[in-house]
Amino acid sequence: MAKITVHPKYETGEISERLFSAFLEPIGTIVNGFMYNPKHKTADEQGFRQDVIQALKDTHLPAVRLPGGNFVSAWQWKDSIGPKEERKVHLDPAWYQYIPNDVGHDEYLQWAEKIGTEPLYTINMGTGNMQDAMDLVEYTNFEGGSYWSDLRRKNGHEKPYAVKMFYLGNEMDGPWQLGSWDTNPDGYGHRCLETSKALKWIDASIETGVCGSSASFMDHFPAWDEKVLDQCYDVVDYLSVHHYHSAPANDVKSLLGGSLYYEDFINTEAAVIDYVAAKHRSPKKVMISFDEYGCMMRDNAPLHPGWGRYNMARSHFKFDPERPYLLHDPDKMKFFEFPGREILHMLSFLSVQLAFLRHADRVKIGCMTGGLGALCASDHDNVWKTASYYGYTQMLEYARGTSMRTVVDCETYDMPGYAIEDTSQYTGKEGVNYIDSAAAWDKENGRLTVFAINRNEDDGYSLDVDVSGFEGFTKVTHYEIFGDKDDPDKKSSVERQDAYAPAQNVKASLKEGICSTELKALSWNVIVFS
Question: Which phi and psi angles does 260 have, rounded to 5°?
Answer without folding.
Answer: -65, -35
